[in-house]
Write a structure and sequence with these properties.
Four copies of one chain form a homotetramer. By secondary structure, chain A is mainly α. Chain A is 76% helix and 0% strand. Chain A has one domain.
């Protein structure tokens, strides 16, 4: 299994999952009242769509950053990568469930948001496992220096810690937990990549003048 | 992040979104009357499908024209590209909503078409932002000459202006606004690409004899 | 627009469309009777799935054979290619409609099959237009010799003629028309490619030892 | 038809199919009782999702292992590959049907699981046919030594035998049959690839230093 095909397949799965997010948006029905009222009532769906869209988008970016540095693709990595994708593919389902219950005001709003947090936590833990795997001898194109390793681990931990926090906050207020997940996605979009220096070096090694 | 992977991911998202447009077409139900009558009653769905199909098709073409000239992929570009895709992925939803209300004859037909225009305007503005980003020092393979820059800006503005017009016309007549969006898509299919000269030059630089 | 990106995008659209065919298969509902009876009652869905699957599969193969020989991608080709994809993306809808009415025994079974034939005819005509475009000066990697051109035209015409025949037969018997479409798909799978000799030559030119 | 395009198309179809598996997960409805109860009642959907996800994931891995060694792509291979994809695309449907009936306790739970087994058996047999085709003179990059051939055949047979066993066990207990299919997927994730030695050799031949 070449790295290129691992990336191509993962990209395709992530691309389909991010596009399926919009299937959760309910097309308003003329028999259910004024259109603007219906769209307004469905604001949790739109908020959930935006948060999940950027979350999946950033998963794609981070997946590339991770895999780009890897030299060998063994069975363990394939399994961890499938595990990661298993959680990514669950995101549209978790998003739809969460949005449906977000403003229900009942106990279920907490549980629906907790389910969403669990799926994202599973995704974050799969990433962590992939990172730990990559530290093994000869698995990375360029050995990660100890201090970069610590930084990368910390950055990865932010994900697992934040989604644990989203899980906890879910039981206080589901909309607050959604806001926290949204802030996390925006943070990751602009946060410096883990071992950016190495990545630049690798880009240079792996690509021609263009 | 390499340009190639940015293109591949964007292509996949756009390809899935364009194909999901057909999911909005309602399969007629034998218990709802004669088939031809049902298909005829659903003409807004078919008209909306054709207009949105060519609109997304041309987004794909223009995306390529934009990204082809870019040298570096930084975090800002990634964010702008995700923003563009966020609106592209909303097009099937906006199309379905618009088609459902197009011939309702009520106030809602105007609002549904306005929502469609807002999604396309968001897409056009994301393109504009990507273009402005690309003007920064050293971000393009070949510096865009001032006059080509003006032409490209003008061409980009046509998109943002037209979808603003579609928004305005929506409140006069929804079908007229749809026709305007359709004419725009056809215009873009045949309009000369922005800096076509540069693109040809770049193709030559970036590809071999085949 | 490079040929590679045209192929990649078209491949993705065709791949999504062929996979969406299975969404038309109704998952049996425990409250609607014995499972085997339900599956048996839905045989038109399965027959339609198989015929459309091989039809879309062969469209993919033929698309490659066509595009592989092309040197330049201009706006006209982009438009014709989008037109082809527009019909391909309609196939799941046309298949679902046709399968729903296939055994209704009413006038509507004829009309539903005719709609299916119209979508396939539109696809076949788009292919023909792409072929005629490719005959223009300098558009093909290797000029197609006159006799091969005639053979290729004939082969393309088979498609347009057969789907016209499917249309006509639809008004006699919808299941018979479906069988004809199925036989056509099988024929194309095993029929020699149009200018196979040229293609082999091109493969040699465009690829390395592997 | 180049091998690269055969792989790219197959990858895209498999990626869409694996992502569509999650569409089978029912988003709980606030009017149908407590969320946790609903999620708990739907455990067969989640179990079926996990088993089918890893099954399709491993199909993707094995498809790569098979195609990677092939030199020529002829019409027969194209047909066999389409046949394989036809069964892969049916997996989401078969999974949804199986999950719907898994705990129904009636005769239908056996039949639904048998349908699932039949689809997987069809997939396994298509793989076997592709393998047998590949043994023809000059079709593989490196001739498969006789003993490796026997091992590969044995490994392929495990698939066809296991899914025959899943079919048989389905009539004793559907959940037991699902567990057997799950164990098979896990086995294939970690089982050594068929002619791994050859594959390594080929990777070396077909790729540069990276």
């Amino acid at each position: 299994m070449s790295k290129a095909r691992l990336e191509a397949f993962s990209d395709a799965v992530i691309a389909v999952a991010i596009t399926l997010l919009a299937l959760d948006l309910t097309v308003p029905d003329p028999e259910h009242g004024a259109l603007l009222t219906q769209l307004g009532d469905h604001w949790p769906q739109f908020a959930a769509y935006v948060v999940s869209f950027f979350t999946v988008g950033i998963i794609w970016v981070n997946h590339h950053a991770r895999v780009n540095l890897i030299v060998v693709v063994d069975r363990t990595l394939l399994f961890l990568n499938l595990l990661l994708l298993l959680f990514v593919v669950l995101i549209p389902f978790a998003t739809a469930t969460m949005a449906t219950y977000l403003t229900s005001g009942s106990e279920d709003s907490h549980i629906a948001m907790a389910v969403y947090a669990v799926v994202l936590e599973g995704m974050a833990l799969s990433f962590t496992a992939m990172f730990e795997w990559s530290l093994g001898e000869g698995r990375m194109l360029v050995a990660v220096p100890i201090d970069q390793r610590r930084k990368a681990r910390l950055r990865g931990s932010i994900g697992t810690l934040v989604y644990a926090a989203v899980f906890a906050v879910a039981f206080i207020s589901a909309p607050l937990a959604l806001a926290l997940a949204g802030v996390t996605a925006v943070y990751y979009v602009f946060a410096p990549v883990p071992h950016a220096g190495i990545e630049a070096e690798v880009e240079e090694l792996t690509s021609g003048p263009l």
